[in-house]
Amino acid sequence: MKNKSIAALSLVGLLSACGPGQSQQSLLGPITQTLFGFTKPASKPSSMADIRRQVTPEVRQRFRHTSLMIAQLEQNERASILVRKGLNDGVETYFTPDNISLSLKEGVLISTRGLGFDLMSSDVAEVLTGLRHGGQAVRVHRYLDGEDQIVIKSYICDYSGNAQITETCYGKDHSFKNSYQMSGGTVVASRQWIGPDLGYIRLENV
Fold first, then answer.
1. d(CA 26, CA 110)
2. For the chain, what is the largest distance between any 2 Cα atoms, rounded to a whole number of angstroms?
3. Is the pTM value of this prediction over 0.70?
């Protein structure tokens, strides 16, 4: 499957209902000009620290009615800010400026769109229980193969830790290790495996 390159998406369009005054585009302009999302080339890839420094109190105040997240793909070290656009049945969907989307349930990544080799969907009900209570869980991932047919991968996962939880998963073809930083029972930062082609992504609430 070819890696997709998506045209830049105006953040004003995503959050036009956030209130009057200085536009969201001007507030996030310094951030988007330096990072360009995941797919649009930049002279120097932005790091999570670069973006974190640019999320000023003014930006946080303007986006107080929604959520912002920073994500970084480890394979190319490119980071982006994401804005939450949707909340449906407990699933939060975040978008980058170049229209890549990540969907999460209680902080656990369940799907991606626009990256190429996307994680199409996941079953994580047992994973959520494992993060709360420990023990063992089964997680199921679905991907598209080269003929656009769904391929299902299942993994057995073990959990350890409290404020910093490690999820160690084993499958027939791959194994991986996710980590979750917890605060008050909520995932506030994590390192999660998307799949064998995309590898890991780091996520952080801001």
1. 31
2. 54
3. yes
